[in-house]
Write a structure and sequence with these properties.
This protein has no helices and five strands. It is mainly beta and 60 residues long. It has a single domain, classed as Rubrerythrin, domain 2. The chain has strands spanning 8-11, 18-22, 27-31, 38-43, 49-55. The protein is elongated, with a radius of gyration of 12 Å. The strands form two sheets. The protein has a three-stranded antiparallel sheet with strand order 3-4-5, with no helix packed on it. Bound molecules: zinc ion (ZN). Zinc ion (ZN) is lined by residues 12, 14-15, 17, 32, 34-35, 37. Zinc ion binds at residues 12, 14-15, 17, 32, 34-35, 37.
Length: 60
């Protein structure tokens, strides 16, 4: 069952994999398990999600 409040799902801006759920006023960094990018996630009090790639995985 889901809670009454709708959770915000944050997706990787690189590969669209769903990374995590977030609450309002969140500020976190998470590494995408699929593509290896480190994503900075900011969620405003208006539930607007901003994602920013802070580190790209180097590939040969
Ligand atoms: Zn990714």
């Amino acid at each position: 069952m889901e809670g009454e409040r709708k959770r915000l799902y944050v997706c990787c801006p690189g590969c669209s994999r769903r990374l995590c759920t977030a609450k309002e006023n969140s500020d976190l960094e998470i590494e995408c398990p699929k593509c290896g990018k480190v994503i900075k996630i900011l969620v405003s009090s208006e539930r607007k999600v901003i994602t920013e790639i802070v580190k790209e995985q180097q590939k040969n």
